Amino acid sequence: IQREMSSLPRVYVTRKVPPDGLQILRKSGQVQLELWDSDDPVPRRELLKKVKGCDGLLCVLTEKIDAEVLDAAGPTLKVLSTMSVGFDHLSLDELKKRSAADVYTRIRVGYTPEVLTDAVAELTVALLLATSRRLIEAAHEAKTGGWGTWRTQWLCGYELANSTVGILGLGRIGVAIAERLKPFKVKRFIYTDVEPRPELAEMIQAEYVSMDDLARQSDFLAACCALTPETQSICNKNLFSNMKKTSIFINTSRGGVVNQEDLYEALATGEIAGAGLDVTTPEPLPTNHPLFTLKNCVILPHIASASYTTRNAMSALAANNLLAGLRGDRMLKELHL
Ligand code: DGY
To answer: Any coiled-coil ranges, and where (predicted)?
Structure first.
């Protein structure tokens, strides 16, 4: 039995993942499993040690999978499965390079789109409303004695009814956000992307506009794009200075799409009315970061997909992707390099 066990592909899981995924891996009988059984990230040195000679690696978004990790893993690594829809923590160039080199087998990459779309869209709407209707500020006032009497203009915010909502990067998540916002009587949805996405846009009757028009016309602007070299810091001074003074900026994609100094300036000088961020650079954002001093900035600790159902579904999908990849089968969700 010992010999049979040791001939199974070796898999390293870099974090305590929700039970569904773990169970799938354990019950498969297909792999020898080792995991970093903690809620905190595996120390880099430990990761570099543990990946050596692995066939499969299941990771989360805090692990940078770069040349160093891939070198440490060596030529046995066949499958990389991330429990996330975002893949900016994976060095795609290094993966491609290795796949092309003779010494390495092609490394297949799995990720977890779709299963988190509902949870992320739901949280985005919650964050948008918390920001535009100043919920965090209001709750704080109520609790700390700021609630004097009912006042005519106190804690007024901005409403969705009759507004224009702009989506930066229209994908599944952008569509799901718009579908949820529509019943709030939004007047118009607009979006921008590298090119028009007619099929998705039709689902929400969204109009394709330029980046400048998106900034100028949106009352609410939600960043829903993936972080890539092209979208790095795309939400910067140029965007914020074109936005209305009454507009709200929301980011549930990646902190890297925002230039945070420019955002701070825009919020502090009233160039825009407010921002709701579920993602920042770095994460966690240090508690002494200037953005935390602003009442018109609501910051959440990257929780958009954090529902029990969704996180379990993500872990199950990541596990199934990994197993399929190791068997040489089609993965449920494969990132084609
Ligand atoms: C992802 O999956 O990329 C999210 O940021 C976390 O769910």
So the answer is: none
Report the nearest atom of ligand 1 relative to the CA of 253: 5
Rounded to 5 degrees, φ, ψ at 40 are: -95, 155
The mean predicted confidence, pLDDT, of the chain is: 96
Q: 235 CA to middle of ligand 1, Å?
A: 19
Instruction: Say what the pLDDT of residue 305 is.
Output: 98
Q: How confident is the model at residue 4 (pLDDT cuts 50, 70, 90)?
A: very low
Q: Quote the tokens at residue 259.
A: 């230039």
Sequence-distant (6+) residues with CB within 8 A of 12 are 34, 35, 36, 50, 51, 54, 56, 57, 58
Q: Any idea what the CATH number is for the domain that residue 147 is in?
A: 3.40.50.720
- Closest C-alpha to ligand 1, atom 3: 86
Which domain covers residue 221, as residue numbers? 117-299
- Indicate the top mutation candidate among 81, 114, 120 to test ligand 1's pocket, ranked by most ligand atoms within 8 A of CB: 120
Q: Which positions are annotated as active-site residues?
A: 302
**Number of independent structural domains in the chain:** 2
pLDDT digits (tens, 9 = 90+) for 154-171: 999 999 999 999 999 999
* pTM recorded for the entire structure: 0.95
Task: Identify whether residues 99 and 131 lie together within a single domain.
Answer: no
Atom of ligand 1 minimally distant from the CA of 311: 7
Q: In whole angstroms, what is the distance from residue 215 CA to residue 296 CA? A: 19
